[in-house]
Specification:
This protein starts with 7 loop residues before the first helix and ends in a 14-residue tail after the last helix. It has helices spanning 8-20, 23-30, 34-48, 64-80, 87-99, 102-109, 113-127, 143-169, 183-187, 189-200, 213-222, 268-271, 284-294, 310-318, 332-337, 366-382, and strands at residues 53-56, 59-62, 132-135, 138-141, 176-181, 205-210, 227-231, 241-249, 252-256, 277-278, 305-306, 324-326, 340-345, 352-359. The strands form 5 sheets. Strands 6-5-7-14-8 form a 5-stranded mixed β-sheet, sandwiched between helices. A 3-stranded antiparallel β-sheet has the order 12-9-13. Strands 1-2 form a two-stranded antiparallel ribbon. The model is unreliable at 384-396 (pLDDT under 50). A hairpin with a 2-residue loop joins strand 1 and strand 2 (59-62). It has 3 domains: 1-170, Arc Repressor Mutant, subunit A, CATH 1.10.10.10; 173-248 and 353-382, 3-Layer(aba) Sandwich (D-Maltodextrin-Binding Protein, domain 2), CATH 3.40.190.10; 251-350, 3-Layer(aba) Sandwich (D-Maltodextrin-Binding Protein, domain 2). It is built from 16 helices and 14 strands. The protein is of the alpha/beta class. The chain is elongated. 48% of the residues lie in helices and 17% in strands.
Length: 396
Amino acid sequence: MNIWSFNLRHLHAAAEVALQGSINAAARSVNLTQPAITQALAKLERQIGYPLFERRADGMTPTPHMLMLAPRIEAALAYIASPQVTTTQMRALLAVASAGSYVGASQLIGLSEPSLHRAIKDLALALRVGLVERRGRGIMLTPVGLRVVRSFRLARAELQAGCDELDQFAGHEVGRIVIGAMPLSRARLVPAALLSFHMMHPDTVVEVIEGAYADLIEPLRDGEIDMIVGAMRAVLPGDDIVQHPLFVDRPVIVGRRGHPLAATNPGLDEMRKFNWCLAPEGTPLRTHWTQMFADQEGPKPMVPVESGSVMVLRQLLLGSDFLTVLSPDQVAMELRAGLLVKISDVTDTFSRTIAVSTRIDWRPTPMQRKLFDALITTAHLSKTYSEQSNPIGGRA
C-alpha cells in the first residue's frame, strides 16, 4: 500500500467522521462539504481495499479497519501539524533531505527537479518557515527544516504502520521491520531472535542496519529504525527514547593463544605492560575499562588502536600481543577453537546491560511487537535477565 497516494485532507476527514460519528459534523471540522467528504471516503476505501464505515440512518459507524487506522492517522497529522501540507510536499522534502540535492532527490523518487523546487517552495510558504538553503552547488536544511523533516519521517512511519496493521488484520503477514544492531547484539542475540521470528512469520522482511550507537540513534528518533539492540546508555540524547533492559553482559579480557599472560592469572600491573585495542572513547565498554585501571594506582595502558569492529579486534589479537575486552559471545567461535583465550576476568563492577531502545511514543505493529518479544525470549533463554523493563511505550 503506497502511503504517498493518500490525500492528507481525506485522511483527516475520515478520522473526524470516526470521531464525531457523522459526515455533517466532520464537514465543519475539516472545512470540506459533505459531498466532498463522501467522495473522499469512497476514494480512501478504494485505495485501502477495506470498508472504513458502516453507513446507517443515524450516522457513520467505523469498521474495525477504521478503528485500527484512526489512531495512526491522528498521530501522523499531529506530527505534520498543518492542514496546508500535502503528501507530495512531504515526499519532496524527505527526498531532498535524504539525497542532499534536488538532482539526487529527483533520481530517488522520479519527480522532476522543477516539481521538487515548486513543492518545497509551496511547503515553505504554507509553513511560513525557511526549509532549505543553498551551500555552493548543494543545499542544506535549515535548523527548522531539520525539525520538520523529523516530524515528517515520524508521520510517514505512522502511516506505513497503519497500512501494515490493516494488512496484518486481514491475515496478510507482510511489511518491513528495521532494527539497528550494535556490535555485541550482532554476535548471537539478534541472529537467534531473527531465526525464531522468521520461522513463525516468513513473509515479514526484517532489515538489520549495523552500526555504532551514534550512527543509529538519530534514525531511530526519526522513525527510520524501529528499535536498536545494544548496550544501554547512561545518558540519552533526549526524553523521546526509552531503553528496555534484556540481560547483563559480563565481558572478559581476551588475547591470542600463546599470549605471554595466558594461564598466568595476571593482575592489572602485568596487563599494564601490554598494548590494548578497544572500542572508542565514550562507549560503555571503554568507560568501564578506563575505570578499572583508574581504581588502582599506576599508568593507564596504551591503546594504539580504537575500533568497535569485532573483526578488526579479532585480527589484531590473532597477530600480536594486544589485549582487549569483549563479551565471550562476540568471539565464541575463536574461543572454542582455541585461537583466542581468556586472559582474565574483569572486576565485578565491569558489566553492561544490553537493551532494546525505542521511541517513547512508539506503538508497535503486531509484527514489530512479535519481533520485540522474540528478542526478549531469546535473551531469557541465553542470559540472566536484568531488572525487567516497563511495557513498550512506558518509561523505563
